[in-house]
Amino acid sequence: WDEPIIFQLSEPGHRGILLPCAGSEVEAEVGDGLSSIPSSMRRTDLPELPEMGQLQVLRHFNHLAQENLGVDYNIDIGQGTCTMKYSPKVNEGFVSSHKVADIHPCQDQSTVQGALEIMYLLGECFKEICGLDYFSMQPGGGSHGALAMASMVKAYFRDKGEDRDEVITTFYSHPADAAVPIAKGFKVTVLPPDEDGLPDLDAFKAALSERTAAIFFTNPEDTGIFNSRIKEFTGLAKAAGALCCYDQANANGLLGIARAKEADFDLSFFNLHKTFASPHGCGGPATGLVAARDYLRDYLPAPLVVKNGDTYSLDWDLPKSCGKVKSFYGTLPSIIRAYAWIMSLGADGLKEASMIAILNNNYVMKKLLAIKGLSMAYPHHGARIEQVRYSWGKMKEDTGFGTGDVQRRIADFGTHYWSSHEPWVIPEPCTIEPSESYSKEDLDEYCAILERISYECYNEPETIKGAPHNSTIHHVDHDVLDDPTRWAITWKAYKKKYDGYFNKK
Amino acid sequence: WDEPIIFQLSEPGHRGILLPCAGSEVEAEVGDGLSSIPSSMRRTDLPELPEMGQLQVLRHFNHLAQENLGVDYNIDIGQGTCTMKYSPKVNEGFVSSHKVADIHPCQDQSTVQGALEIMYLLGECFKEICGLDYFSMQPGGGSHGALAMASMVKAYFRDKGEDRDEVITTFYSHPADAAVPIAKGFKVTVLPPDEDGLPDLDAFKAALSERTAAIFFTNPEDTGIFNSRIKEFTGLAKAAGALCCYDQANANGLLGIARAKEADFDLSFFNLHKTFASPHGCGGPATGLVAARDYLRDYLPAPLVVKNGDTYSLDWDLPKSCGKVKSFYGTLPSIIRAYAWIMSLGADGLKEASMIAILNNNYVMKKLLAIKGLSMAYPHHGARIEQVRYSWGKMKEDTGFGTGDVQRRIADFGTHYWSSHEPWVIPEPCTIEPSESYSKEDLDEYCAILERISYECYNEPETIKGAPHNSTIHHVDHDVLDDPTRWAITWKAYKKKYDGYFNKK
Amino acid sequence: MSCCRKIVHPYIPNSSPETKKEILDFIGADSIEELLVDIPQELRMKGDMDLPEPCLSEAELCRHMDSILEKNTSVRQAISFLGAGCYSHQVPAIVDEIISSGEFLTAYAGEPYEDHGRFQAMFEYQSMMAELLDVDVCNVPTYDGAQAAGNALRMASRIVGRKTVIMAGAINPDRRKVVETYLDSILSIKTVGYDGETGLVDLKDLSEKLDETVAAVFVENPTYLGAIETQGQTISEMAHKIGAMFVVFVDPSSLGVLQPPSRYGADISCGDIQPLGIHMHYGTGGGFIATADDPKIVEEYPSRLFSVAPTSHGEWGFGDVLWERTSFANRDSCKEFVGTHAALWGIAAGVYLATMGPKGMEDLGREIMQRSLYAKKLLSSVPGVKVDRFKSTSFKEFVVDLNGTGKTVEELNRYLLDKGIFGGKDISKEFPELGQAALYCVTEMVSPRDIETLVEAIRSFVE
Amino acid sequence: MSCCRKIVHPYIPNSSPETKKEILDFIGADSIEELLVDIPQELRMKGDMDLPEPCLSEAELCRHMDSILEKNTSVRQAISFLGAGCYSHQVPAIVDEIISSGEFLTAYAGEPYEDHGRFQAMFEYQSMMAELLDVDVCNVPTYDGAQAAGNALRMASRIVGRKTVIMAGAINPDRRKVVETYLDSILSIKTVGYDGETGLVDLKDLSEKLDETVAAVFVENPTYLGAIETQGQTISEMAHKIGAMFVVFVDPSSLGVLQPPSRYGADISCGDIQPLGIHMHYGTGGGFIATADDPKIVEEYPSRLFSVAPTSHGEWGFGDVLWERTSFANRDSCKEFVGTHAALWGIAAGVYLATMGPKGMEDLGREIMQRSLYAKKLLSSVPGVKVDRFKSTSFKEFVVDLNGTGKTVEELNRYLLDKGIFGGKDISKEFPELGQAALYCVTEMVSPRDIETLVEAIRSFVE
């Protein structure tokens, strides 16, 4: 499809949907409604939205959908750290039911017992999954989970009367583990990796002080290496009076195997859209479920879901709470999907998911490391958990083509590939996370694509240079995006800056 | 996608879904269940179905779906006679509800009042739409509607004790109007078109006799020409003692305008999947609703839906009934969609749909007739109803390219084009039916595609010869399809006949 | 409440006055009315259709439809033991996902180039059915199993060149009525009963009625009353001996654990694919016909048959086998007709079979067997209730005989309904010789607990 | 009831023993356990997780989930007058169709080449919001409107270089709590009340608190209590005079009939897109921030901003504006953070706005106004019930004052609930100065008949 911008499809007077009409009797009673609006606030020009029939709107967005790639359409293992696993379709039926889609947050609690029960039951499951005690499902994603943790750390020390304003995180933790505490007003120290790729213990000791409020660690880190010494870190942190916050975004290799509890973390968050199979939705809505030890219950975002007898209710009585991070109580659809996914697997199945995720990752690792020009960081860690950060550094040296070139070319094979979180310390990085959802044949096919691209880089440079060849669009001029006189963030701005196809006015 | 045949994706031991398990307690009670099957009937080898994970199955069929074109994806006006109109998405919610999807035909009628009520109310709507009196929704499609009519004709004359075994239809009526009566044991006369393209009245008079059981007429015929003299035909038929059966497959230009009643038909059927917006589903399931005059009620397929007070029930008491044409009562999903569609438009909206379908058709006609090499049959009929049969006869003479070549090429533009029902009397035909669902811009775009192809036929023959260029597949070898030693109707047969890619064993 | 605004309908974009005028101007007409010249006034409808006030917004339409559909009680809201030709089985969510995709749902009849996916999906459906049935040819779905049965018998008649068929054993009466419609005026039907002791085909009756005018012998397996017909091989030999064909209507959900008809001599297998992942929808269906890859038989199929075919570039191509055979190509001298049948259900069944795989089909058979046995065992403990009316093994369905309880099926079913249970189908009118009898169906959707609930309820009713 | 078969899970294809072995052989390991070398035993979980028996089949899972979810009563099963930051509006079916498509639902973070559709859809969303708001820049959605408000105030603080903000008028208390979390430790908040007579911002209080430490003045329009804030221009001038920015939280569903904030001086508009075609889901949301196309402001957005860009072949290309600005690119010195937020809701809102079009948005505003007026008119006829607590015009929500009835809101709501009516939100604790008061919300989903039903019920309760 060479799909126009939607405004180009507008035809005068066309309608995509009608509204219920109050009818002439009501109009006779109260007038047209609009004339009662104070004139200074009455909008008389209509917003210049497109005017289209319903089929025309549907077709447009269907065409855009077909120009997009989800887990349902490709072997989505190239977006490492994202855990692009299968989101079971059966769960979509629960979420789209009016019993979930059409309930209001202020309804009497007797009319939303189903929603509350599932939130409660999901918490009960997480008691086992992470070993901690109380839960909030308010955060809308992983970074938001980090915000909740950072806010709880603030609230905790405020309550204790301690003035601590530093956070320590690690280089291969998720970007949010640094960014969120910074945004929350903490000073953040990022520990460099040691020669094993793990956070440097000496640097950690040096950074730790009575100013340290918390550590924010991801484990395994984005290299796929599990920090075996994690308990040393949490132990030192606790000794220094800091709280230990666990970013569990990379939990997909740990279910039933290793938990926050055994590693002595105080707080933790999980991405229900990664590990627990809620779909990513192009980037949310999602849930970053936060888990806390019993002694931190009071600081969780209010309200919590509690059970009294057979009745579930919202407990707002948390005077020391860190406050709220999101309106109302959380993203119910991902909560329900996560619960349903856990229930469809059970304890054995969850552990099997992690075990196979690990198996798949190590399989792909062995296959990929046989590809010319591709290596991995910290190669002496022979076995990885659920993902691996690789490097095309050698190929870049040999051919001039690096990870960005692979990324452009792989679109031609109908699949994804993501370089890696910035900053790039590992040269020309890419991160592959096979998860448990893909079959051996899927993994073989993906590896074969990377092998083919490596071959092309070494032997058919022209193919790489012109890529993508089969994509909807060709090379995008990125300079525009950093130039205020040329970027156009909306169609309205485009029309002000340009005539026709990018003819500057 | 270059999607393999599903059997090629099988991996040993993989599962797409699990079954509920009765559990070990039940097994302890009754054993494994299988050993109680008489050994001669016990299948011990498993059927060689593919073994795949759920995501792998989903992805395969998603890829196939993306290699398919529905109304939701293209300007689907090139499948003339099919009335490819928009099927409103809101109606899909009703149909997928368990209140519709998961009800059993033998349930106590008190538990299916909703289903019966809609069947009844839809009949009430059709009383207005066609002017006839009683309805059966049993037939599963248009041809099936014709079968019901033919069976009723049989039952009627059997009941009357008359021995009539001939049916008269017309050349531009749907193929089923000849094929179905033939299959039902009638002798069928097909009236040739006169110079106006309408059924020849003299030929009709000649064919009519005391052997004539019925006439099966489509109107407007597939040329889009309305037979103005239809009442002469029905009058003559009735005078000869025959029943008049109306194939209303082309009703999309007639709603609220012209009806079976005014044209004196006795029986009629409507395609709920064409005119009444139930989607075509790649070719069914569908409904060919049959309508009858009050004096033919007794011959309708049993049961009928009746209303007593506020209660709806199935009336099986039709001793003269033609029997049944389908198990149970009909295709509830299309019945519900049709009812919902009618209710979303009302009387004014239905008529507007027809009026705009006519407007769109005449607009497209004027634009297409300006294209080089394209003409229409019976050009002196200046205004058409809802479709037009065109001819590329001139272009074929000029360039050697005909309707089949246009058909191959148009796939490259991401849309459909259908030559026409056989036999082709109009040379190199195609039939375009714009319906009311497409916007002016849609129609302009489609016309521009045909204009472009005409240009290519005249000026860039190589482009046409190699077409399709962008389709998933290239030219198919059709000879295989008529050769018993080479066709392969199943993968099992393929493996017997071939090794690898069509290497004959 | 009538709407007080001017309507441009979302489904009729060009009803916008601006667009309407633009188009009329281009055509050179003043009104659409002018385009109706060919429709004489006497054929015009007088006045407006008298239809209910429409629900112009989706919100109003949903409220209206919900208020009606709410009156239905679905099997998700009850415990159901109904079968008799329409079955509640597990429908994998991905089946619904795929058949509700706009690409398949709203497509129709494109060519192999732009509708490649549909052709391949249908070929795969045919192929998976062929594995289940152990045959080489299977058709694109017919309207339902009943049509498939009718078609199969007509095919047999043309192949053998005879005009009588025998329908033998306990046959689904609803289905039989449809078959009669298909055969009416073309073929005549002789009926062979079932053996009162076993519930299987009465071989004696069959051998008496079988003669050289007979084109085909038709049986159901399992029979309507649920028995696994074990005499297939014998019947097949009897039929073949006099040159008749053997046609078996089979429940495909049984074929993970029961032998397919082709293995006990069936020349044509047919049946309904509804059990294969298709919701019941108050009785829908889709039929299959399956045979050997014999051109004499293939010639006689009324349905479309998709074959794989090579392309110039080495992809998997597809097309219609023997197109000239169909009524699409050859309406004036066709043998039967084809049209819009039930393609989407074929795609559904294909997705279902791929999702189930061989082990899924075996598990299905096992679960049905175990649960049926469990139900029969518990039911037989209720005083006066008998489940061993026939000395044969049942699959999925079986007869519950209430004659010993002094109650009618109707009474029992009314009692059960109040408790949220849909009791088995009352067959006391269809099979008066059985007295007060009901046909119970137990699929994998009926849990052991459901069975216990049923039995407790029946016990409290009869005691 | 425990399953008695060995499980190969459909979601974990390689759990098939055959495949597992093949892979282990390739790796050269005997068991997966071997691959866990880096996880010391002391960190391992001891024993198995104690989770409930799973529902391994979809059928069992559906039964389990249905049995829980059944306990919810949705607004489709009741008449609801609840609002307070989450709204029941008509959601066009095509919105659900598109956002439930696997292509959008299961995608994440691809590049412009293979995820072109997502980029374009998001650009179109931004663009349609910009039309509604009459601005040139709008962001990719934040988690919710509350976050958007927090972000907007932090942006203002950075732009102006001051650390205090004023929240003025009747503010949604739930939202305010979230904003406080975003501002905590970074900015301080001063509160300005509302005018007891009009319900609008107390200008006197504002002018007293407004000084040159103030970075921004924040108001809601309509206010939490439903009033259309008509003093926007004045407040804007007051703020601008001392160099502060004016931030307005606006209900986008009002913008077909109400002026957008940019036209009465707002420097930053923000709000929640939930009213634009997104189901309530027990309180979901997605936030927008919209401003002029000023690089100084654009620099301060925390969110992704997609721009259209040319390609080498003349298609519409897309990309991230000022990528280096985001915490993705620059985590260690970021100003705020970005992550997985609510992109799918942005696509939903885009589809909604395209479906509604200009006339749909106007009709929406008109329907809300007419129905609210009708509700207020009927309610005011009930003895003791007052709807004119504030002398201002309301949009969609208004305060129902029960003080004259001698009853509490809690009592009334319990009574209404028994009749299938969700009465307005009890705000007597949030706003004790109003006594027994409830916040009623009337959208286009509430029919005139629903309003009559409500009023009859209230009348019968108070009389």
TrEMBL record, chains C, D:
Keywords attached to this entry: Oxidoreductase
Domain (Glycine cleavage system P-protein N-terminal) ranges: 11-456
InterPro entries: GcvPA, GDC-P_N, PyrdxlP-dep_Trfase, PyrdxlP-dep_Trfase_major, PyrdxlP-dep_Trfase_small
Designated name of the protein: Glycine dehydrogenase subunit 1
Lineage of source species: Bacteria, Thermotogati, Synergistota, Synergistia, Synergistales
A single GO molecular function term of this UniProt record: glycine dehydrogenase (decarboxylating) activity
GO BP field: nucleoside metabolic process
Presence of keyword DNA damage: no
UniProt xrefs under Gene3D superfamilies: Aspartate Aminotransferase, domain 1, Type I PLP-dependent aspartate aminotransferase-like (Major domain)
